[in-house]
Structures are given as structure tokens and as C-alpha cells.
Amino acid sequence: MSTLTFQGAVKEVTGSRYLIEVDGNGGSHKLLLECGLHQGGSDADEANAKSFGKLAHELEAVVISHGHLDHSGLLPKLVREGFNGPIHCTRGTRDLLEIMLLDSAFIMAKDVEWENKWRKRNDKPLVEPLYEPEDVERTLALCESHLYGQPVDLPGGARLVFRDAGHILGSAIVELTIPSGGQEKRLVFSGDLGNPSSVLMKDPEKLYEADVVLMESTYGDRDHRPLDETLEEFARVLEEAHEAGGNVLIPAFAVGRTQEILYHLSVLYHEGRLRQQLVFLDSPMAIKVTELYHRARKALDAEDLKVLNIAASGDTSQYLPILRMTRTVDESMAINRIHGGAIIIAGAGMCNGGRIIHHFRYNLEKPSTRLVIVGFQAAGTVGRQIVDGAERVRVLGQDLAVKARVHTIGGFSAHAGQTEMIGWAGAFRNAPRFYLVHGEPGTQEAFKAALAESGIEAEIPAYGDCIEL
Prior knowledge:
- The chain is an alpha/beta fold.
- The chain has 15 helices and 22 strands.
- β7 (152-153) and β8 form a beta hairpin.
- The protein is globular, with a radius of gyration of 22 Å.
């Protein structure tokens, strides 16, 4: 029988990884579904540092659902440790990986540089980054991109088809047909299901046949607010910030969320409802991704693009003329000479690094500042501390009082909410086995109960659990 072993994103949101051992073509063939980075504190760092061991040499192929680092961020480490097979993904994911993995390698190099300075002073052994830019380049060379709906042959007689997940550019639901015990079994991994209310992305595809479903459950305990209410709240926050004379800080999730926020800011601008005079996109990676989205606009929702009238030309200047893209450190530092009245979208989205924490030093202790949280904050991150009501946080070795007004606006989420997720799960006709992944324990228990009320039984696996397909 073919098996699946849960190696990550079980009872947690990040670190996606599932080992599939295919019993086909006269032997066992090892495939890896996802190769994600753990995010959120020292436990995550320890998990990321753990060696793949002999698995790196035994794997025959890797399948990636989309480009977010919690699904793909350890690929270069796997290659560094010896993997040399194909990495299957969509074209959009391949393009995003080039941006995100190189950025990840750059950040790791900087973090290790600072860490080793301290270690050298204290006579401690030096550390190495998980991977370097050369490992990323080798990883990208192994990527094989495929269209949605295109069948792909995998080792052991398995077959792969990607379906549109509607989450970010290139995001996919993974459909695998796997020989097992003399039969063919269909394994479906939801990936991250998109929010149908989100702009730019198409709605997630529904599938109807499966034997086993791995289903994400990030927001399985709640629905998002309706988009029109979310936009009105967002507009009110911006208006209040203008009246107070403070800056608006928006921690940037570089892929997807940033592009959606820029879309809504542009609509408010053309409606005459955006009082701020400057919008800064202060994230080199988010800038590159935004430019990629424009190049790949044919893959986006045509109706949303009509609102911006950029479907044909792709010209960004016409839809948000007050947008300034700050690529260099000097340009970023110059923003903090502005004494209020700007919107600053800066990485990283969970406030665990990047330029946003430098802006915290100048803005977080000002009551006139508005901090707008627009995405999930993993346990252990500075963003999570703030959302949970921390009065002080420590960034860049400095304790800062949180005097800014904090607004958590969940309606911008690129993830499906509970109702949409139950609707997607309910489309399967033949009562497959459901396993909940990518969720915090309390959220997963709530989602499991909600599914049960809809007649869908689900299990919550633990790390290392192995199931037969």
C-alpha cells in the first residue's frame, strides 16, 4: 500500500510537508508534497535547522502548491543537502519562487551575520545560514512548471494535476492519483484555499472525487467580515489617521495581500476618499511581486482589472499616482522624516523582521499612528504579540510602548473562511477521508465540529502520523 506521512503543518499553520511513498512500478518511490519553512519563534528555527538526512537523496520528485514560504521556503535547503530531482509547480509559483527564495536567502545571510558577530564576541561557535543564493539558483533550475488542468506523470505511476486555488498568483489545489494496493487512489491537497471575496484572484475550483483530502484550516473557526464592511472600516481608519495627523503602518504580506491593499487604495483614491498624500510600498520583495502581478495580469480576474482600467496597458501610474516604491535602504529611511500623513506598507507581514520594524521605532509610540493588521499572525511573532494586546514589544534590541491604535481587519484575508471551506469540502460526492492541516489546535477543533454538523467527518493528525492511501 502507498502511504502518506505528516511531517509538517500539523497542529500548526506553517512548515508544510508531507511524505508520500508510492507502492507502484515494482518498488517504493518517495515523493514530497510541499517543503515549507516553519515561522514563529525559536521552536520554528529549531525545526527549520533539522537536517533532511538521507531523505534528500531518496526523494524522486517534489510537488509545491504555491509560493508562500511556509509551503516552499525549505526547498533550497533540501537541494543543498542533496536533492536533485524535479520540483513540480505552476508557472506563477515558479516566478514567485525566484523572488521569494532569493529574498529569503538574503535575509538569512544578514541574520547570520549579526548572530555571528555576537557569537564571536562571546567565544561561541559560528552558525551558517540554512541556504545561500547559489542553492536558490540550483533550486530554480530544478523547477518544472505546468498549466492548471495539465496531467503530469510522476515516479511510481502517480499522476499530478494542478487546479486553481484562487489564493495568490499560481496557487494550486494538488490532485494526485496514486497506485496503492492494486488500485488507484485519489489524494487531494487543498493547498491554501482563496477567499472568493478577494480581488484579483479567481474563485477556488471545486473538486468532486477523492479518496483522501488534506485540507487547510487556517480560518476554520470563523468567517471573514463581508468585503464591503471591511472596506468601510478601512476607509474610516484612514480618515481617522488623517484627522489625527499620524502615519498608517500596514505590515506587508508581499504576495497577494499587498497587491489587494493597493487595489483598494486605488479605488478609494479615484472615489476621492483617500485623504493621504503619499503611499509608500517599502518592501523590495513586495515591489517585485507587484510588478510580477502586472506582467501576469492575464492570469488575474478580468472583472477586477476592469475597475482599474489596466487590463490592456498594465500601466500602474494611472491607478494610484501617489504610490512611491522605495527600493533602497536610504529611500526607506527617508520616509521617517515625514511627520505624519503617509500610508506605509512595509515588510514583513508578521512583524518578525523587515523594514516594518524600523518604522515601528519611529511610529509605534505615537498615539496618532494607526497600525493596520491585515493578515494572520503566527504564534511567537511580534505581530501576534501586538494583536494579543501587548503593551510593549521588543524590536531591534529596543523596548517600545505600543501607543499606536491597532486595527485588525480580517476581511482582507486571502484565505477562505469557515463557510467557504465547508462549501468546498461538501462538493466531494463520495465521502473521502478528511485530514485537517495548516491550523492552530483550537481552530482545528472548531472546524472539525463545524464539518461534523455538515455531515463531514475529519481527523486531526499529529506530527509523524502515517496513513495508508
